[in-house]
Amino acid sequence: MNFFYPIQVLADWLVYTLFKLTPNSLVGGSINFFIYDVIKIFLLLAVIIFIVSIIRSYLPPEKIRTILARKNQYTSNVIASLLGIITPFCSCSAIPLFLGFIQAGVPLGTTFSFLVASPMINEVALILLLGLFGWKIALIYIISGLVIAVLSGTIIGKLKVENLVEPFVFQSIANGNMEMPKMSTKERLTYAKNYTLDILKKVWPYILIGIGIGAWIHGYVPTDFLAKYAGSGKWYGVPLAVVIGIPLYSNAAGVIPLVSALTEKGVSMGTTLAFMMSVTALSLPEFMILKKVMKLKLIFLFAGIVGIGIMFTGYLFNFILK
Question: Where are the alpha helices (DSSP H) in 23-93?
Fold first, then answer.
């Protein structure tokens, strides 16, 4: 059962019945995508922030620090990446996760390992890849995503770029390092509601802009373009696929059908996997959201490191899977 099916029904009714746009047209598809994703993402964002806030009211930050912050740097990056794999967060949850990790005293590099792994790798995508392409491709997908997440977080941690994070994030660490006072159930719900509303007020313009750009491009999904210019044997296919994937918003499970279509049209597997990873790990909406908590230079650094890792993976798989 698709939990978001009622939202899709509402979007279809608004676009094709109320607005009387033609189904499957470029304009209709783009507007439908925009309406559907705006409702879905704001719903997800509100629910995720609310749940994280409730958990934070029960879970002292010291426990998180014990798991991640006090371990060896490399070990903490691996654990954070593994947690990201089994935690089904999408890129729209970037801010509450980022704030939660930093305020709990988790190092910046470890936090980025989680931010990369969580949207890039999930069990639904693994099952779909296993069914469409077999266990070899599914295993490569998991291992490569894990390696990219661990290395990206390790590099960012080594660079010591805490000065590129907005000051208000670290100003609240003092509060994050204190144990949450005892609360009643009503007080926890009130705290979670206020925290959720505060975050939504800060990020809603970035979300709308990011989804709007993604929806415009979504109506012109470049399947034929990619197949023509990123087919097997094209040396520039992998970086081209990565660049095209950045503005498109989707999770790994949502982009896999497009990956299947691309492989059927002659695009090599490494190129299609690079495209999928780019869509999920280098999401433009996520960058728009993260702009609120970090400086542009850090976003470019983050995107550059992850992008290089994805391109290397794409070339490697094209070589292995010839």
Answer: 26-58, 61-64, 73-86
In a domain, 1, yes or no: no
- Distance between CA atoms of residues 265 and 224, nearest Å: 8
Reported confidence tier of residue 13, pLDDT bands at 50, 70, 90: very high
How many angstroms separate the CA atoms of 102 and 173, rounded? 7
Residue 175, domain extent: 25-320
Rounded to whole angstroms, how far apart are CA atoms 273 and 317?
9
Task: Please indicate, yes or no, if residue 19 is contained in any of the structural domains.
Answer: no
Overall number of domains in the chain: 1
The mean pLDDT of the chain is 76
In terms of residues, how long is the chain?
322
Instruction: Please give the structure tokens belonging to residue 226.
Output: 């990619």
Give me the DSSP letters along 171-213. HTHHHHTSPPPP--HHHHHHHHHHHHHHHHHHHHHHHHHHHHH
Whether 188 is covered by a domain: the verdict is yes
CA 264/CA 322 separation, integer angstroms: 15
Helix (H, G, I), strand (E, B) or coil at 54: helix
Cα–Cα–Cα angle for 78, 157, 123, rounded to 5 degrees: 30
Is 317 in contact with 144 (CB distance < 8 Å)?
A: yes
Contacts of 125 (CB under 8 A, 6+ apart): 141, 251, 252, 253, 256
pLDDT tens by residue, 238-249: 898 888 887 776
pLDDT per position as a tens digit, 109-126: 888 888 888 777 765 566
Q: If DSSP codes are grouped into helix, strand and coil, which group holds residue 104? A: coil
* Max CA separation in the chain (angstroms): 63
Q: For residue 225, what pLDDT is reported?
A: 62
- Give pLDDT, residue 178: 46
- DSSP annotation of 230: S
Q: Which of 30-39, 207-216, 247-256, 266-275 has the lowest mean pLDDT?
A: 247-256
How far is the CA of 225 from the CAs of 141, 205, 241, in angstroms? 24, 31, 10
Domain presence at residue 8: no
DSSP secondary structure code for residue 283 in this structure? -
